[in-house]
Amino acid sequence: MTEGNVYFIKIENVTVSSTIIDEYFQCDLQKCKGACCTIENAYGAPITIEEANILESIKEILYKYLPEKHVELLKKYGSFEVHKGSYHTRTFEDRECVFVYYDKDIAKCAIEKAYLEGEIDFRKPISCHLFPIRKISFGNDVLRAEFLSICEDAIKSGLDSKIPVYEFCKESLIRLYGIKWFEKLKNAINSLRR
């Protein structure tokens, strides 16, 4: 999609990019191996200060799922870092998120594992749950899809299955804004297509 073809719609106070409406996406962990959790970067996933506090409070519950090298890092430096006023999950050697564990050769999230096991009530940072949607704030929230080269298989899989980004991210969008907001989004999209 070229930049000139991008348009925006507003749902309540949230501006939604057409990249979420018109583009397709479906993760294929067997192909990407959880690459979004191991992107080479000095900083991990963006998190809120509230999420940073939650991660600090639950980190010890997660130790049993994590590689020892990650546990040592968490014990020594904590679960997050601050860069230019923004909070991020800590990374191991500027690459994998400190909360990554491996299921065979697939990078997975220990936070989500503990959540699914009923040990904590926090699923994972919203920025992770929303991916490939990125939320930025300019007074109000702006949502757009961010397609990385590591996601080529997910884009192809989404095209094959005809799953638009907003449907792939339905659960996380409802978590963030509620079911009524999501229904308004779907109604607006249906109106666009009439």
Describe the structure.
- It is a single chain.
- The two termini are 21 Å apart.
- The chain folds into two domains: 1-25 and 132-194, no CATH class; 35-129, no CATH class.
- It is 42% helix and 22% strand.
- It has ten helices and eleven strands.
- The mean pLDDT is 93.
- It has 194 residues and is of the alpha+beta class.
Low-confidence stretches: none
Q: Work out the number of β strands.
A: 11
Q: Can you count the helices? A: 10
Question: Which strand-content bin applies to the residues?
Answer: 15-25%
Gyration radius over CA: 17 Å
Write down the oligomeric state.
single chain
Structural class by helix and strand composition: alpha+beta
Range of helix content: 40-55%
Average pLDDT figure: 93
Tally the structural domains. 2
Q: What is the distance, rounded to the nearest whole angstrom, between the alpha carbons of the first and last residues?
A: 21 Å
What is the succession of H and E elements? EEHHEHHEEEEEEHHEEHHHH
Largest sheet descriptor: 4 strands, mixed
What is the 3D form? globular
Strands of the widest sheet, in order across it, are: 1-2-11-10
Can I get a quick summary?
This protein is 42% helix and 22% strand. It contains 10 helices and 11 strands.
Walk me through the topology.
Blueprint: E1 8-11, E2 14-17, H1 18-22, H2 29-32, E3 46-47, H3 49-62, H4 68-77, E4 80-83, E5 86-89, E6 91-92, E7 96-97, E8 100-103, E9 106-109, H5 110-116, H6 126-130, E10 133-138, E11 140-145, H7 152-161, H8 165-168, H9 170-177, H10 179-192
Parallel strand pairs: 2-11
Antiparallel strand pairs: 1-2, 3-5, 4-5, 6-7, 8-9, 10-11
Helix pairs in contact: 9-10
